[in-house]
Amino acid sequence: MKLVNIHKHTLLLLFLLIGVYTAQAQVWTMQQCIDTAQVHNKNLQMSRNNNAISEQKAKEVKANLIPKVTANADYKYFTNLPYQLMPLSTFNPTAPEGQFKEAQFGVPHNINANLQLSMPLYNPQVYGAIQTTKIASELTDLQYQKTEEQIYFEISNLYYNAQILHHQLAFINSNLINAEQLLKNMQLLNQQLLAKGTDVSKVKLQVAQLTTQKESISSKYKQVLNALKFTMGISIEQSIQIDPNIQYQSTTEYSRSSTLDIHIIKIQNRLLSSELSTLNKSRFLPSLNLFGTYGTTGFGYDKQPNDFLKFYPIGFAGIQLSYPLFNGTVTQRKINQKTLELQNNELQFGLLSEQNNMQIENTRMQREVAKKTVETTIEQIQLAQTIYEQSVLQRKQGTASLTDVLLADNALREAQQTYLTTVIDYLKADLELKKLTGNISTKN
Questions:
Q1: Which residues neighbour 117 within 8 Å (Cβ) at sequence distance 6 or greater?
Q2: CATH number for the domain including 28?
């Protein structure tokens, strides 16, 4: 009986996964995917816009120190002129004191037009806000870096998933060819009455299972590529291929440094402290403003024979000092809120530090287990390959059943899949460890 043994070539493929590059058109490396996302990913674009918004807010706060000029104009027509009480002695010098006479003053038409200038000479709230927005800009920049890191992390994981699915498809295609050839041989032997009909059915079942598995893996592969393209920010219709070369490397120890999450917590602490300081200062420090007005006032009368419209200039300048005496404890309530927020921030910093230490330890153990499993599965593949070859040989000699060959074939395929999965698990654990130790970078 002639059996085509594709698995001999498959084992060689496993050891050539590292360092092998299949030249194809439109192949995207992981770094190319990350670089493309830097330009087209919408989350990053929104994050850059947030940085620009933060810059404009900082300029807006500083603009409060620039003099403000306002043009005002109004027209009033009095249907009833306002009354004023005048001492009766004004009209009659002999009138007794304490008696008054009502009198109407003014004319029906009143026109006012002026320019008003206002400029803060000293305002603790404005200077505090300038310091606060400066810190807020640093926070926005860190949040942009956080978004970059997250995109890098997502693309790397999607790329690893695509690589393992790509190799799973290659193994399934190889195993399917082998199973179909085995089916032909079994059908031929069955016709020659050298094999049972159940043996043919078993091989048919295996071919059907492999075909179904191929369709499932192929669908998953397309879905992962679509997710990768979405994260990169390119059209779903665009055709891309990944580099199947899995860059597996030996264990690397990373030096500990503060993660972006820790940096963000620290900046948030500075921001809250600045806001609290501004509130405390605004309670006890006065505000000093320069103001001035220059314009004209017009009076008009529309009855004959003395109708007229005359304008008179008006102008003044001054300095205004404001000191808060009591505002209903509103400021104190805000101070209490910021104090509690600051306490929560400090608790969050401690919680995040402890969580980071725990996650680093767990991820190191996961990576170490994955590394050992990779070494073990290589040995298992070699052993499964040997068992499969012996089963095929024994089948030819009539000392082994078809079931033994199929079981050996399944064991070899399972070892192949385990190897690929474990390599990707190692790479993902290594990526997570980079992130937790503050060593992840979009340029790595």
A1: 67, 68, 69, 290, 291, 292, 293
A2: 1.20.1600.10
Indicate the pTM of the whole model.
0.77
Which domain does 150 fall in, by range?
A: 7-67+122-287+329-436
Quick one: residue 193, left, alpha or beta (phi over 0 = left, psi -120 to 50 = alpha)?
left
Q: Which two tokens stand for residue 38?
A: 């830097």
pLDDT digits (tens, 9 = 90+) for 131-175: 999 999 999 999 999 999 999 999 999 999 999 899 888 888 877
For 74, the 3-state DSSP assignment is strand
Taking the C-alpha atoms of residue 419 and residue 424, their distance in angstroms, rounded to an integer, is 9
Lowest mean pLDDT: which of 57-61, 155-159, 325-329? 325-329
Does 116 fall in a domain? no
Q: Looking at the domain assignment, is residue 295 inside a domain?
A: no
Round to whole Å and give the CA distance between 294 and 292: 7
Structure-block tokens of residue 379: 């040995």
Q: Which residues pair with 299 in a beta bridge?
A: 110, 310
